[in-house]
Design brief:
This protein is of the alpha/beta class. The protein is built from five helices and seven strands, in the order βαβαβαβαβαββ. The chain binds S-adenosylmethionine (SAM). S-adenosylmethionine binds next to strand 2.
Length: 163
């Protein structure tokens, strides 16, 4: 699973998953997470959070808006964020919320962090997808892009930036 490749979190370099959804990625991340102090998940949908908490009872999954991600992280009392796995649907997020989230991601990047997201091949040139890549490229250089993952439905790339 490309999204979790080379993710090696610990208490001082935790993994922050944004838009945990049904936990399709979390299921794979779980094996890399050494203990409950090395992971924080944020998901907006109340029902999804309820079932995530049942599925991953040992992980800290918070119902909240990624717009407040710095506050949520601070409140969690967990360590520095070393990895961000971002599954947020930037296409459907209101512009100002998307921008606000990216600015907060910058704060984690300043402290040394790996940011990874995926973009569907069919949406690769959507304005919101380009905007995210430009935001990151301008600050952190060219992404490390995976080959097209055709096994994914729909096919997608993973994009990684590291500071
Ligand atoms: C593409 S899906 C997640 C895919 C995920 N890997 C899975 O296993 O389902 C995007 C998720 O982001 C959540 N989401 C959307 N906007 C959000 C926001 N502002 N803050 C937190 N989560 C959000 C949605 O509820 C949805 O579950």
């Amino acid at each position: 699973m490309k999204m979790v490749e080379n993710i090696v979190p610990d208490e001082n370099n935790i993994v922050l998953e944004l838009g945990v959804g049904t936990g399709a990625i979390t299921k794979f991340l779980q094996d890399a997470i050494p203990n409950e102090k090395s992971y924080l998940g944020i998901e907006l949908d109340r029902n999804l959070v309820k079932s995530l908490k049942e599925k991953f009872s040992e992980l800290k999954i918070v119902r909240g808006n990624a717009r407040d991600l710095e506050k949520i992280h601070q409140k969690s009392g967990l360590g520095k964020v070393g990895y961000i796995i971002c599954c947020l649907p930037f296409v459907s997020l209101p512009n100002e919320i998307g921008e606000h989230i990216l600015l907060q991601i910058d704060e984690f990047m300043k402290r040394g962090c790996t940011f990874r997201t995926f973009q569907y091949a069919h949406g690769y040139y959507f304005p919101s997808a380009i905007k995210l890549r430009e935001h990151m490229r301008y600050r952190y250089g060219k992404s490390k892009r995976s080959p097209l993952i055709v096994k994914n439905v729909p096919p997608a790339y993973t994009l990684t930036w590291k500071t």
